[in-house]
Amino acid sequence: KEGGGGKDSCRMAPAKDDKKGSKGKESTKGGAGKASKEGGGGKAKKKKWSKGKQKEKVNAAVFFDKNLYEKLKKEVPSYKLITPSIISERMRCNVSMARRAIRDLEGKGIIRPIAKHASQCIYTRALAAKE
Q: If exposure means fewest CB atoms within 10 Å of the residue's CB, which of 50, 76, 102, 127 is most exposed?
């Protein structure tokens, strides 16, 4: 039963699998298998796209509650560099809320502006200016 012509093709299939297995071993050594594959003009493997890095979604507050506002008034004046993005990151609130808070603190004289621009405003604590 083993001497048939159909059986020869079955015997060839494991030999191809063995080549694939040895190719996998070569690629772990240094990628020599890929270079020889491309140089020979064989069918190249399709590049698999990476899913990319995804930023974690922050559960940011949308309104100031009493605790958050007290924390903001206590901690923000101690920062050397104050920007809306820094406040939103540390206080876990929206940037629009951080901008409002900065305007409020500036109005009270707790912080002072260093650079004001439409896209980014930079502030510092007002205590450093008085000393």
A: 50
Q: Do residues 111 and 124 touch, judged by C-beta distance below 8 A?
A: yes
**Cα–Cα nearest to 112, from 72, 87, 76, 69:** 76
Please give the single-letter amino acid code of residue 95: V
- Residue carrying the six token digits 């080549």: 19
Partners of 113 in the β-ladder = 123
- Beta carbons within 8 Å of 98's beta carbon, 6+ residues apart: 84, 85, 87, 88, 91
Tell me the pTM. Answer: 0.54
